[in-house]
Each structure stands twice: as C-alpha cells, then as structure tokens.
C-alpha cells in the first residue's frame, strides 16, 4: 500500500449548536440517534423538537471539552525518577461562552433553578432573575448538555456528517461576569464540570453520524 500523508476529511473545522436539558440525562433519556443510512435529519432538529431541551443560540469561542487525569507516584530508593504511576483521580470539563445575553442563558450560567426566573420581557412587570445568595444545604443545579457540530467525513457527497457531544450531568462551577461596555459584546463565559452518572459511571458519549436530505 502506498504511503499517504493523512486524510484531510478527518480535519474538523466549525462550531457546534449548544442545547441544555432541563434535568440531568442518562443513556436511556437521551433522545434516540437514528443511524446512517436511515437518518433523514440532523440531530439538531431532533433536539429542537424534543421536550425539555433549550437551544442557547449563538455562542463564542466554540466548545472546549477537556479531560484532566490525576496520577499518584511511587518512588523507590534505587532510581531517581518514579518507578510507577497510578491513576488516582479524573476531572472532565466543558467550556463555552453564551453570546446571547438573555436571562434564560444567565440562569444556566449561574446554575440557578428555574424558580429564580419569572415573567416575560413583554409582560407589564417584565422578566426578573432573582440573584439569590442561596441558603445552607442548598443543592447545586445539575443539567444535561448536548452539542451538535461538524464531524469527520466527506462533506461534498450527499451525506451530512456531524458529531454529537452528550454530557449527562453538568454543573456550572466558574465565576460568571456580566458586562455592559461600549466596545465589547455582553456574553456569559461558562465552564461546566461534568460528573459521571450512577448507573454506568459514564460522563456521557461522543457520536459520529451522517444523515441525508430526502426529497
């Protein structure tokens, strides 16, 4: 077989559509992903029609999923370096920035429950987000996250290639800054800490799939 430098079709460029679930997810509660060659719509359309999912709209700086393992060391007398490493911890996080500075997106970024938001912008009293200090013993609000972006494959053929990132339990943990500046857009940078579910100890999954438009 002739040597090839690589495959440019495996290079991914582009951002993802970002959806937040009202509650945590499991493999069983994630909307079904219909596989190729039977898929006739993007998973974005599936989530848009599914109950309990909200599209956060425009985002900035894309999506960043990071895995941070933590290793312990075993040192022995006979060598100056460590003799063995063992895995003793794991952290997974997901970062993005909400470019649509709505109170609904701020609610998610602050990890508030839905009871903190009331009214609508078109009502007489307007829409209100209660900036509560919380109380002792208050449980943090966990939500599920699903993002749909470009995947690997030939985008010139009749199939559309996409990659799905699903996180079962996500909790916003970093500082959130709200700004109103003359020369900068108001957006909410948010970092989610992902936690494994109880049944499978899984953080979620990543799915590559294709779909075809039917006439």
If you had to describe this structure to a student in words, what would you say it looks like?
The chain contains 2 helices and 10 strands. The mean pLDDT is 90. It has one domain (12-114, 139-167, 178-212). The chain is 7% helix and 40% strand. The longest helix has 7 residues, at 43-49. With 215 residues, it is mainly beta. Strands 1, 2, 3, 4, 7, 8, 9 and 10 form an 8-stranded antiparallel sheet that branches. A two-stranded antiparallel sheet has the order 5-6.
Short description:
With 215 residues, the chain is mainly beta. It contains 2 helices and 10 strands; from the N terminus they run βαβββαββββββ.
Offer a few descriptive terms.
215 residues, eight-stranded antiparallel sheet, 2 helices
Rounded mean pLDDT is 90
Largest sheet: 8 strands, antiparallel
Helix content, binned percent = under 10%
Helix- and strand-based class? mainly beta
How large is the count of helical segments? 2
DSSP, total strands = 10
Query: In one word, what is the shape?
Result: globular
From the N-terminal CA to the C-terminal CA, the straight-line distance is 40 Å
Order of helices and strands: EHEEEHEEEEEE
Rg result: 21 Å
Contiguous low-pLDDT stretches (5 residues minimum) are none
Structural domain tally: 1
Percent in strands: 35-45%
Write the layout of secondary structure elements.
Elements: E1 17-21, H1 43-49, E2 53-55, E3 59-75, E4 82-98, H2 103-109, E5 117-118, E6 128-129, E7 143-150, E8 159-172, E9 188-195, E10 204-212
Antiparallel strand pairs: 1-2, 1-7, 3-4, 4-9, 5-6, 7-8, 8-9, 8-10
């Amino acid at each position: 077989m002739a040597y090839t430098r690589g495959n440019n079709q495996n290079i991914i460029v582009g951002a993802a559509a970002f959806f937040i679930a009202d509650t945590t997810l499991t493999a069983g509660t994630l909307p079904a992903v219909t596989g190729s060659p039977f898929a006739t719509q993007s998973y974005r359309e599936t989530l848009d029609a599914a109950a309990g999912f909200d599209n956060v709209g425009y985002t900035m700086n894309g999506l960043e999923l990071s895995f941070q393992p933590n290793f312990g060391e075993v040192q022995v007398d006979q060598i100056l370096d460590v003799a063995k490493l063992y895995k003793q911890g794991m952290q997974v996080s997901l970062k993005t920035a909400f470019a649509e500075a709505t109170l609904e997106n701020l609610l998610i970024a602050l990890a508030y429950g839905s009871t903190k938001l009331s009214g609508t912008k078109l009502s007489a009293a307007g829409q209100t987000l209660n900036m509560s200090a919380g109380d002792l013993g208050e449980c943090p609000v966990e939500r599920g996250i699903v993002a749909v972006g470009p995947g690997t494959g030939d985008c010139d053929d009749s199939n559309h290639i996409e990659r799905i990132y699903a996180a079962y339990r996500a909790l916003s943990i970093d500082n959130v800054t709200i700004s109103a500046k003359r020369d900068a857009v108001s957006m909410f940078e948010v970092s989610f800490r992902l936690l494994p579910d109880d049944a499978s100890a899984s953080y979620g999954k990543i799915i590559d799939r294709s779909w075809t438009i039917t006439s």
